[in-house]
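Run folding on both entries below.
>entry_1
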Amino acid sequence: MATFEQSLQEQRVTVVVGVPVDSQVVGAIKNVDGRIDVLCHDPSLEPAARQRALAQAEIVFGIPGDTPAGLTELLRSNAALRWVHATNQGALERLRSANTTGEGHGRIQFTGPGGSHAGALAEFAMFGLLAFAKQLPERHTARQDAGHPMSELAGQTLLILGLGSVGAEVARLGKAFGMRVLAMTRTGNGHAPNVDELRPARFLGDMLPVSHAVVLALPLTEQTAGLVGTRAISKIRSDAVLVNVGHGGVLDSQALVKGLEQGQPTAVVLDAFSAAQLPDYSVLRSMPNVLISPHTAADTRQENARNTELFIANLRRYLRGEELVGRL
């Protein structure tokens, strides 16, 4: 009987690119091995044609439609599927919430961007803090001086909720700006680089009143869902800036609106929302002290290149029958 490695050497491997990419990415995937056939899940194709392409996939690079329902349907309809790679953090969170039980469970490997997005998201968090410290919104529209001096990040206290790859990078950058860095994790155990004080989640109410900047870098779990709600927002300083580069479900948007209307916090920077996108009718869109990114802060040229390199390195491992790096 042929081994898994021998069978891989004898058969074609179909990779479906499920998200928009440039031709260089497609070419790089094709050049990995002569056995690879690359199909594109082109949004301009008719739905039936897109489904035919997906039905042939052994590997999918980028979750089509970026929805749990789309992934669930893919798992249900494609018995040949063996590996799905999420290309961004939003897709990764949706992959986690998709129904991967049943027929697809066990036979399909899932990988994601790992920590490759940490630098981009941490830079965006610091940009948000700098934007309001330097009065970017006011000075962007004002023809004359904004009327009061700018502030500095140095000497301010930065609170980071979550110390995964993103939170750890925010801590490093915050410390480089001369900030005092506090961090909250579930247990608060141990010590972390660039963190002056690490506390467990139960002390959130004590840390918020002393923090000039609050950065959310948490995934969505049963413990973190709605963590920053009415009670937490009531503890935030009136001069604090709140940034969310974690999962949108961690932050209660209705409580946030009420807090902003009452002056707590003074400003908000959002790259994540409880829904896939912030609704057009959301009052947050019209607030002058709210900066919004449509969940694209990690979508940089460098991040996309790193993610493609990660996928290609794993593709070579897959063809050799080796374990994939970064499996979920």
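>entry_2
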Amino acid sequence: MKLKNLSITHKIFIVFFVVVALSTISFLHILDKTYEVSLINQGRSIAQQILIFRKWAASFGGIWTKDKYTPEIGYLMEFETKEGTAKAYKTGEALKNFGETHFYLHNPALATRELSNLSKIEYGWTFRVVSDRYMAPESKPDKWEATAIKKIKERKKDEYWSWDGNKFRFAKAIRVKKGCLKCHGSPEQIDPALLKAMRAKYGDNVDRAINYKEGDLRGIISVTIVPPSIIATAISLVDMWNIGALLLAFLVFWFFAKNEIIKPIENITKAAHDISLGKLDIDLGVRGLKEDEVADEITKLAIAIDRLRASIQIAMERLRKKK
């Protein structure tokens, strides 16, 4: 259908809906970008908290738990005492005698693995600490994580993120600090008892997880978030205020278009039709106005048509007088 076969009312409606459609697409694009930035910040926040926790645990040489550990994860070293006495801070006052007590050492890697299992249950997002030089089989990177490690090395940046299907995944580099060398430095830098405990737990895999230097990439914190879809998010943002504002915008637009465009053009069209039939005694509502005094183009057109009507009327009167 050609546009000239449509009324100006239909054209205005078409333009209005095209503008609304393009605005909606633009809004969804902005929402998508904002949504992604929000997910990046969420992933970054989670990773930073894990890094802080690992740094704290490493500063104490790991975390010792009393008479308890997670069986599926285990521990790195056990400390047994036949008699244990609890004492108060500062005063040294004896508080309780525990008798035979067992303490289990969880190095930062084991501790963060337990936190990961807890986060999966409690919060709906998960994280893993993985490395291309992994010691424990659980720390072996999956396909996305292997790509993340590769990209971080190539780009020499400490972050990488992308969508993996319907999952948003964020990777944060773990750089070797001085405290990390206690477990991942050269054999000479690692306590012999700790090295024996590591070999007892991880076997020959220990060899590929040591001999690091400060600043080396030890691995990544891999955060996985399964957010709702962008469409579901957009729908969740729509309420009665949004719908009311859209309807009000449409009514304002329609009121303006009807009274300032459609109706004046209809009047001019009717006037031109009447003039063509010789009906010159018509009022366009612009008598006394001058074109240089108005800015509205339709009003200027009406003034021009009215001037044409007046000129024809004068010409017709002159012809009558000559007769």
